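Re: beginner question about structure tokens

> Can someone show what the tokenized structure looks like for a real chain? I only ever see the sequence side.

Sure, here's an example I had lying around. Input first:
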Amino acid sequence: MRKYLFGTGIIGAVFSGITLLRGARDAEFTWREALAWLSWAITFALAIGAIVDTRRASRGHLVAADSPVKGKEQKLLKKSLRR
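And the corresponding structure tokens:
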């Protein structure tokens, strides 16, 4: 589970969220900040989706055609079975 939680997508999303929180303390809420939070939420959701797809592929399940791990299922399954 560590390899999923400490992936670069999650770490990047967490640090960008921290940066947004720091910036939100001093300023009033504007439409630009709302767009920044929306962008952060989309980034975080995509990072979680990539983790779910990687985990599914490493267990031998099918992944969606638009997944970043599509085509690498066999490689991930072999790597998982070696452990």
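Each token stands for a local structural state, so reading them left to right follows the chain. Residues 5 and 42 are 17 Å apart (CA to CA).
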